[in-house]
Amino acid sequence: MLLVAATFFPLIGCRPVVDQNVEPKISFTQVPQWSQGDEILQDVMEGTVQGARKGQRLVLYSRSGGLWWVQPLPTSPFTTILPGGVWRSELHLGTDYAVLLVDASYDPSPVLAQLPQRVKGVAAFAVTHGQEKSSSFFVDFSGFTWRVRKVPSDRGGAVNLYSPENVYTDSSGALHLRIIKRDQQWTCSEVNLTRSLGYGTYSFTVEDISHLEPSAVFGIFTWDYSVSSFRENYNEFDINFARRANPKAQNAEFVIQPPVVPANISRFMAPAGKLEHTITWEPGRVTMFTTRASGGAGAPVISKHVFTSEVPAPGFESMRMTLYVYRDPNGNLPGLQHPVEVVVDRFEFLP
Description:
By secondary structure, this protein is mainly beta. It has strands at about 5, 25-30, 40-50, 55-65, 65-70, 80, 85-95, 95-100, 110, 120-130, 135-140, 145-150, 160, 165-170, 175-180, 185-195, 200-205, 215-225, 235-240, 250-255, 265-270, 275-280, 285-290, 300-305, 320-325, 340-350.
């Protein structure tokens, strides 16, 4: 733990979700690096909170230019407390970072000269300086910096572990994502851009992945920490390569979340060989298509789909690539049998 919070009076009249005698306390487990302030670069800040009561949320601030700026966005100022008291969010870099535990009715200011302390609606707060060096793991690929995932996720129907050691770039500059067994458990790979690029065209050139086992999933997708999973589905849209443990299924899909809406998913068969996968994101429209990478200009399109419903607008999203294990919920098929590797030769973005 990097810092233990200063604490103040618990809110009166709120129904406790933990021991009522526990005073609220905020701790940091990861803090971004120190920076004079960067409107582009992002990093993860995370920690735990004890003694939070029902309805309370967190408000994060990053200090830059002598002012405190609410994170991740003024339009999305709250961070949810996850099970176990864990909290996590991406935010812009600054010289100092702060977390407030607040009442549900608290209205956070987008910019502050000083942090609120003993004011109505603030149950606890914690402040820390930025670290000399981020504790995140990064990899440089195709002229961009990507953060490498190190915490578990529940993608794939069960908890998947991730290891930064599973990700590297080779002498040619290609990015390698791997699933490797470590300590008798499969560990997965995921990377995300450290900046939001917004509308534009995203292209990924990927070596042959037609050989993926039915329990392996490779995905290209957007994710936005600043929105609610229930309302905006984290502004996610995807190109996935997966049979979801069904050997007879088509092995690829274009998706706008949520996929339970039939119009939000288009499945197709991706052939063997090196392929280029492209996403063009425009206001009210997302176009996804796959072509052969060796075909040059005018290469035949293997599959294409245009989405005009449920299309999100840019916010605090980042483009990501993930390689993980899918568990068959019915248990009809065995799990992953062998290590997996996906090689991405190139990424390109055109605004």
